[in-house]
Structures are given as C-alpha cells and as structure tokens.
Amino acid sequence: MSDAINALKLVALDKEGLAVISAHVQDSCVAPADLTWLPKQKRFVCGAMRYDWAAAKSGRHERVFAALRFDRVLKVSHLGLADREQPRRLLAVRFEKIDAPSGMVLLTFADGAAIRLDVECLEGELRDIGPRKPAEACPGHSLTTADAV
To answer: What does the pLDDT look like over 18-60, one tens digit per residue?
Structure first.
C-alpha cells in the first residue's frame, strides 16, 4: 500500500476526539527541536515519529512522521524540556476545561516532561506527513536517537 493510502488525518474539537488522537500518538518519538510555537498565528505544532498502532495489528512495525497541531493557543508553558537535543517519548495528550470552551491541552512525556497549552477552545489535528520507516525499537523500550529518525 502507498503512504498516501495509509496516511492518518484526525481532527479533535472535544475531549473524546482528543482521546482518539492521544491513542494514535502514544509512544511517538518527539525531538524537542520539532516543537514550534507560533504566537501570532495562535498555533502550536509538534512534529513526531508516530508509531503506527493500526499497522502493528497487521504485523507491520512502522513509524511515520506526523504533525500534531493545535490552533487558538494563547500561551505555552513547559516543564522538563531544557535539553533541546534529547528525544522524548510522548505518552498522552488530554484536554481539561477551565472556563468552557477554554481550557488547557496537556502533552505528557515518559521522562516526566510536560507541555501545557492554554487554549481559547479545543481545536487540534493529527496528520501523517512523512514517509513510513521500519520501527527500530518497540514502544515502551529505551528511547534512542535512532528512534527519532
């Protein structure tokens, strides 16, 4: 099958939709250099080598470069991301309402690092944008630099 046929594109406008995206990005390898905050556009983008859980069910262990994008972002804060070289393993993405429809999107990583996005409302998208590559390590194992490529 071609990469275009297997390309994933999901949109989240509520907590349940974001839970689906979170399941698909679980164990993605994220290089901190692929985290981008565009304040004038109110946009935050996270590039990641996403482990393709759907392909794994059919015996293919692959990663694909994907973009996780959030719009209507007012503020970005983080904890534990001082090392801009070390790849991280994304565990989950969740949304907490504060004053509906506004709230915060939380991206949590295996090493305890976290990113908080204060948003006007939840508006997110996950889209596969790169070629597929064989996964060099199974999710849940130690992260190596090779996993991030």
So the answer is: 999 999 999 999 998 899 999 999 999 999 999 998 888 888 8
* Start-to-end Cα distance in the chain: 22
Q: Where are the domains of the chain?
A: 3-131
How many angstroms from the chain centroid is the CA of residue 138?
17
Cβ contact 30:80 at 8 Å: no
Place of tokens 């849940």: 140
Those residues whose C-beta lies under 8 Å from the C-beta of residue 67, and which sit 6 or more positions away, are 45, 46, 47, 48, 125, 126, 127, 129
Q: Give a three-class secondary structure readout of 81-125.
A: CCCCCCCEEEEEEEEEEEECCEEEEEEEECCCCEEEEEECCCCEE
Cross-strand partners of 74: none
> Looking at residue 3, what is its pLDDT?
56
CA distances from 75 to 20, 70, 102, 104, 109 (A): 24, 12, 12, 9, 19
